[in-house]
Amino acid sequence: MHSPxxxxxxxxEIGIHKTKLPAFKMILLGIFAGLFIGFAGIASTVxxxxxxxxxxxxLISACLFPAGMAMVLVAGSELFTGNNLIVIAFLxxxxxxxxxxxxxxxVYIGNFMGAGLVALLVVYGHTPDLFxxxxxxxxxxAATHRTNLTFLDSFIRGxxxxxxxxxxxxxxxxxKQVAGKLLMSFWPVMLFVLCGFEHSIADIYFCLAGIxxxxxxxxxxxxxxxxxxxxxxxxPVTLGNLAGGLSIGIGYxxxxxRHTPWYKLSIESEQEEMDIAEEY
Length: 280
Description:
Layout lengths: L3 H17 L2 H26 L5 H11 L1 H11 L3 H4 L3 H5 L5 H28 L9 H14 L3 H22 L5 H17 L5 H18 L8 H31 L4 H19 L1
Helix pairs in contact: 1-7, 2-3, 2-4, 2-7, 2-11, 3-10, 4-10, 7-11, 8-11, 9-10, 9-12, 11-12
């Protein structure tokens, strides 16, 4: 198992690598992550759609949704919310601000495209026909709930969500085995879904699927439209996710890397080993 210090050090290299990717690859890998989160979104809705007990329904959905993060971590992709941890490499002066922002923008665009594509294909492939159309109602309700939150509520829930998502990513890097990565990433993601916190990329799927399903199935959805999705959900949730992610990244950088003697000693030790190797 990697220690928290080792995770912090490794994330500097990860941040450097992520920001050096060409924009095209950032967007393409972002599309993959958006697809994975969208798949998790429809699965979580299907799982809880016909369960009458609200608590049990949410628990089932919460246990299914982490499959999306599992695919993101293991299959290879770029997720905006997890990539907020790139701030660690920036604070350690290993990457430029422009490189970090470029990664976030490109990955976010890709995530939007991927999650939106799943929403489009799910609805117009008529997956909502399941359970005699009850799934369509569940999809629309999930979207309506999100667009009826206040700006402040969406922002705060976004903060809480991405604190847990970044902890999931951080904890996954503690393990050297795939099984350990899946186990450690499961719990924080399950918690944020169970508690009703808001994830911007997941909400792209949920809200767009709700808008498409409302139109395709003629389901009335008060307050659900493109404008409310963008202004009352996506903007505040994205800002909240960013704040939550930065709080985790900055916090761990301060604890493990900023003015930390053993970090400096490890760097000096590595440099000495390199110098000795060069001599021979």
